[in-house]
Design goal:
It is a single chain. With about 80 residues, this protein is α+β, with helices and mostly antiparallel strands. The chain has two helices and six strands, in the order H-E-E-H-E-E-E-E. The strands form two sheets. It has a four-stranded antiparallel sheet with strand order 3-4-5-6, covered by helices on one side.
Length: about 80
């Protein structure tokens, strides 16, 4: 996952500073950085949670669908209509 790759790079260099992903200028990593690495042109990334250098939640919405990633969930990726 592109988001985890970017988090790993930051975590390897500094494990004391909290890593955040947000809009450009608000997070250490921007949503645009993640989309660029993932080669995603459309859609929205939101609600990214990072715990101990690992992505513990990420939501991606596109074309009326929402995908929620939760590595501890079952399933890890839950897709539904975006309400």
């Amino acid at each position: 996952m592109a988001a985890q790759t970017l988090v790993d790079e930051k975590w390897a260099g500094d494990q004391k500073t909290p890593i955040t992903i947000g809009e450009k200028g608000t997070g250490i990593i921007s949503y645009d950085d993640v989309k660029d690495l993932a080669e995603v042109k459309d859609g929205t990334i939101s609600d990214v949670t990072i715990t101990g250098g690992k992505i513990t939640q990420l939501i991606f919405t596109h074309a009326g669908k929402k995908c929620v990633y939760n590595p501890d969930g079952s399933p890890k990726y839950a897709v539904s209509a975006d309400k």
